[in-house]
Amino acid sequence: MQLQWHIPSDLKAMACILETLEQAAYRWTNDAALVNRLVLAASEAITNAMRHGNRMDPTKQVHIVLDALDPHVLELCVEDEGDGFDRSRVPSYNPEDKEMLLQPGGRGLFLMEKLADQVIYEASGRRVRMRFWRTG
């Protein structure tokens, strides 16, 4: 199973795609915890792609691929059309840091990296590949 979508950098389009992703994931597994992790990670990745990658430029799209690599691995790939970024240059969010708790943003990468079983940044940071492993 491989499904692909291309959506404009519009937060309204994201709401529709998240529902579609959820339904597609449930066709692969009935593990609600896994599906919830995938949908939340997708929300963060797509938001980052729109806001930081494409800078909310309506002429740029976000490309999304959901793929069952095998019976135990579901992969979500989100790619923007921006300039990319170097993950090592973005400070890691620390939930223990009281200063960071007060900041309105900066949690997206942290959440994606905690929710997915594996996160890979590719294409100079324009693409994030997240893998979710099914147990049982």
Q: How would you summarize what this structure contains?
A:
The protein has 136 residues and is α+β, with helices and mostly antiparallel strands. The chain is 38% helix and 26% strand.
Into how many domains do the coordinates divide? 1
Approximate strand percentage: 25-35%
Strand order in space, largest sheet: 1-2-3-5-4
Structure class: alpha+beta
Helical proportion? 25-40%
CATH topology: Heat Shock Protein 90
General shape: globular
Q: What is the assembly state of the chains in this entry?
A: single chain
SSE order, one letter for each helix or strand: EHHEEHHEE
Number of helices: 4
CATH class, please? Answer: Alpha Beta
Textual characterization of the structure:
This protein has 136 residues and is an alpha+beta fold. The protein has one domain (2-133): Heat Shock Protein 90 (2-Layer Sandwich), CATH 3.30.565.10. Helices cover 38% and strands 26% of the residues. The protein is built from four helices and five strands. It has helices at residues 11-28, 32-53, 98-101, 108-115; strands at 2-8, 61-70, 73-79, 118-122, 127-133. The chain has a five-stranded antiparallel β-sheet, covered by helices on one side. β2 (61-70) and β3 (73-79) form a beta hairpin. α1 runs antiparallel to α2 (32-53) and α2 (32-53) packs antiparallel against α4 (108-115). The longest helix is centred in the first third of the chain and has 22 residues, at 32-53. The mean pLDDT is 92.
